[in-house]
Specification:
Blueprint: H1 11-23, E1 33-37, H2 49-61, E2 65-70, H3 76-89, H4 97-106, E3 135-140, H5 141-147, H6 151-154, H7 160-170
Antiparallel strand pairs: 1-3, 2-3
Helix pairs in contact: 1-5, 3-4
Amino acid sequence: MVGSEAGLGDPIEDAVSIATAATIDFPRLKERIVIAVGLGCDRFNQVSDAATLRAIGELTAARGFLGCASLHAGTQPHTIYKKCIDHLQGRANFRSVIANSIVASGEGGSGFNVPEELRRRIPHGTLYLWPLMCMHWAFSITAVYNRSLLAPLLVESQTIDEMYTVCLLYTSPSPRDS
């Protein structure tokens, strides 16, 4: 996300991750790539699908979109991912909306069908599954950083309070991003 969208989910977490990965001094690093999975899961956090798809288009135009791959049922990656999620959930009471949505999407879940693992946490009609959730989207971290309004501003922040201040000052939604 740029930082001016109406729904940002976790803007500080995302911008700090992008800024760190884009600016860290690590000379042996050959390629800096960010992988996004769970496209549409953040609708639960009021992130607009239209803004997300527009961002992919803009990153494609900037030659920052590197491709995507599906994590669908019947493949080894889906099996491994599901085993990891089952393992983690077997040791905790918390159920991740994003992780379980990715698994359900990869198994053909769609619409307002809340995965069984989340029914205690998510009311019916608040989570919408679609096939793009189980895809991994690869982007150049440099292109994502250059597109971001927040990430470059957070590089000089020293405390979480400074980051929140920057975020509050620079995240006023524009009508285009609604």
